[in-house]
Each structure stands twice: as C-alpha cells, then as structure tokens.
Design goal:
Strand content: under 5%
Helix content: over 70%
Largest sheet: none
Order of helices and strands: HHHHHHHHHHHHH
Number of domains: 2
Radius of gyration: 21 Å
Number of strands: 0
Number of helices: 13
Length: 282
Amino acid sequence: MSNLLYSAIAAHLIGDFYLQPAAIAEGKKRNLWLLLPHWLLYALPFAVLYLLSDQNPQLPTLLTIAVASHLPVDFIKQLLARRVRKLEKSKRDFRSLNLFLADQFVHLAIIAVAAIALYERGLILEAAPWLAELAGRLQLNLYILVQAGLVGLIILKPASLIVSKVSTVYRPERSVEYADSTNQFHENRAGLFPQTDPAVKKPPDKPVEAIRGAGQMIGYLERILIVIFLSVGQYASIGLIMTAKSIARYERINKDSEFAEYYLIGTLSSILIAILAYLLVF
C-alpha cells in the first residue's frame, strides 16, 4: 500500500514543482490558459510511473484520477488567488500561504483516497520485470529508493516554497530596505524580496547585492543534512546546523530583535519540514 501511495505522491511532486517552469508558474497568474501546458507536463511523471510498473490494469484508474483532478483544482485555486492578490498586504501574504497549503492538501487527499480505494480492490504496485531484475543485479531495494526519493522531493523545492511563504507572512516591514542582506537566508526561487526601488536609500554598511540563489541552496543543504543525521541516528548534530546559521548572522540577530524572530521562524520551519518528511515516510 505505502509503495503505491508514495510513488503516486512522488509523481505529483515532480509534476507540480519540478516540471513547472518559472515562466508558467508566474504566467498562469495572469493567463489561465497556461494551466493547460502545466497540466500536460504534470501528466508526464504519471506516465513514466506506469511504464516503470508491471502495468496492473487498475493502475491507469489511479493515474487518471490524479491527473484529471489536477486541472480543475488548479483552476479554482487561480481564481481564488486573483481575489487574494487584491487584499492589503497584511492579509494577502497569510491568505496566499493558506491557499497554497489548501491546494496541495486537496491534490494529495484525492491521490490518497483513490490509492486506498483501489488498493482495497486489489491494486498492488509492482516494478516492471526488467526494472526488478536490474535492481536485483545491483542489489538495490526499490522500496527504500522510493522512500528516499520521496523525502528528497519533499525537502527541496516544495519545502523551499513553504519556507518562503511562511517567512513572507512574518517579515518585518522595515526589512524590505535590507532585502539585500536577508534574502541570503530566506528562500524563494523567484526571489523572496523584489528588487527595491533605486530611489530607496540603502545603509552604507550593507552589501548592495546578495549572492543569487544562496538562500535556497543553504536551505537545501540544511534539510539534506538533517535527513542524513536522522537516518544515522545523530539527532544532536541537528543543533549544529542552527548554530552554524546563527553564527553567520550573529551581528544582525544581536542588533535586530525583529529580524532575529523572523530568521528563527524561517529556520525552524525548514527544520520542521525536514523532520516531518523523514518521520512520515520512514
């Protein structure tokens, strides 16, 4: 059962996060027709999953439900998102986070309900004969690979986006002026902080430009290390990650209590996602 569910969820994450170009992700906010190419790309990992399986006659039913339901759910989400974007900022960021989480919950709930229902009717996901033979020769446990792959898919882009949205909700208003120094630590593949107006005066003791993508990479490495530490039972080592990040920003944290709280929310959110992903899957 878990193999079937994990594989379907992995296909969902690949299609919804990793096969969605930034141009489509941003463009569909203005043009709903761009939901169609996203939907077609979303279907690809489910097709690959079918090809890698023993092609149980009931499997296409699960895959069809997952793919067919994705488009109307996304359509409704985009309609609601347009209303959210018209709200004032204090409400907009929080509603945007809730809408994102609700959207993912609906997608995953549909997949889970369909997988459980079909499993009770006898659907068991098995690897294709050639894949099972290859795994046997290489002495690989395909189930463990599916588990590890699913955790990896969760803690990279999806986790990065969640941390970004959570951090945005609690971002101090004045931190916009210091975006160049803070966006190294809070993640957003599209940039958590928009480029500031050239007319805004920046503090002379702050760097004008941050390293592009540094915040996202720090988050990736942080969560990967946490999962590795959990897998080998080195739980105390997780504290070293927080220590290392805190040392890097000690001066700013020490002088700015609002930034310290904001920074801590982002860090703890990232750590929590990594721990939950590992515990739920393994």
